[in-house]
Amino acid sequence: MFYCNSTLKQDSKGFSLIEVMVVIAIIGILASLAVPSYLTYLKKSKTAQALPFLESFQSQIQSYYMMNGAFPNQLSNGCPKNSSFPITVGGMGAMGYSTNANHAWISVNITEMQTGVYGWFSLGVTVNNGVFSWTCGAWDSTYYNPSYIPASCSTQLSTLMGGGPFWQSN
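The chain above was modelled as a monomer; its predicted structure follows.
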């Protein structure tokens, strides 16, 4: 016997529009959670990379000061005092070196992909009766998020260093 079934089930081929839309929505939600965390990680890693670069000038500045009683007029890489110097070291756009009688600052401008810049990160020294006190951090937390700064650093150098570097009025 032969039966005719008018409601034969057809084989499904592919995904329905609803299924595809649900998958895209899930991917969008996951991306919206992951991307900000990744960008913060990038900013912290650039700041962590800047610290050893700045520390490479510590011994030069300290030994010069001990021998001459003043800070050097330029750093070993050619960066002159109280000015900006173009460099490209892992996302750092410019370098600055500034001094006054008892303080010196070495700073790098760390660039961000979206806005082009997110602040000056600095290593500063204060000399008091021949004792060198080094600290690192950012000059202004308005332009530089304190969460990017390594835990070993101060978050705001301007209050510790008594004034500001060459790009700020003292």
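The chain has one domain: 26-161.
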